[in-house]
Amino acid sequence: MATWKWWSKRRLLGILGALAPGPEGGCCVLCPAGYPLEHLHPPSAQALASLGEDASRAQQWPMGVVCFWAPDRQMWVLPPFPVESATLEERWDSPTFRALYTRPVRFGLLLLRRGGYALGVAEGEALTHHKVGSRYVQGRHRAGGSSARRFERRRREQVRHLLQEVCTEATARLVPHLPSLDALFLGGDRLLLTEMFRECPTLSPLKPLVHPHHLAVAEPRLEVLEVAVQMAWQSQVALAGPLTERAM
Asked: N- to C-terminal Cα distance for the chain?
């Protein structure tokens, strides 16, 4: 059974030609989300169905799915940005597929942990706007009693101040870019991000743009934000046939 792995943009585009089949040929099928893959290329649909439980990830991915198909091997890619039109190319190394990773894309990033935050706007792979901040938030108190309750109140107050600062900065630095953003990538503490959106109604317009790829990042700093831009371009990849041992 195939297993999905996160591949960087550089790795995916760099290895694509090397994974191509021999004289038996192959094709590339680009299928937008919601479009029946079997209408484009029935063998690809049958191969995807053979993945069993792993097939559901491709079927549910809101950006669409790309299948590289040959009689002896298949590769499925879940791209970071939408497949816009149904396309079947009778070649493995597809120019249309490569164009998914070179077209102009503008997206926001918001990374948050209890020690601080980082937010910004990227165009392609370049970070064009950013803001980084830090605030001290105490860890959890393990003892009980009244001292623990006082500790927890202080801690909650520290979290509240952190969320207020992030709300203010994100409202000022991300919301104005809303008309030109293709997506918003979140990273860090999921629960804290959920609380921030709940407590900061001015960020509500950004919610429809939240990308399904949640970025697993370290404590937010400028260098972490720059790495997060590259992470946003990652794709999920699954291989079958002789490709499995060679590439994974």
From this structure: 13
* pLDDT, position 147: 60
Domains in the chain, please, with CATH?
5-101+234-247 (3.30.960), 106-232 (3.30.420.60)
Q: What is the mean pLDDT of residues 43-59?
A: 88
Q: Where are the beta strands (DSSP E) in 25-155?
A: 27-31, 65-70, 73-78, 87-89, 106-113, 116-123, 126-134
Q: Is 157 helix (H, G, I), strand (E, B) or coil?
A: helix
CA angle 19, 21, 27 (to 5 degrees): 95
Give the tens place of pLDDT for each residue, 105-134.
999 999 999 889 999 999 999 999 999 998
Q: Which has the closest alpha carbon to 234: 37, 40, 81, 86?
A: 81
Contact 209/108 with Cβ under 8 angstroms? Answer: yes
- Contact yes or no for 125/230 (Cβ under 8 A): yes
Burial class (CB within 10 angstroms; exposed 0-12, middle 13-18, buried 19+) of 56: exposed
Average pLDDT over residues 149-161: 71
Does the pLDDT at position 104 exceed 70? yes
pLDDT of residue 171: 97
Q: Cβ–Cβ contacts within 10 Å for residue 80, how many?
A: 23
The C-alpha angle 106, 126, 170, rounded to 5 degrees, equals: 60
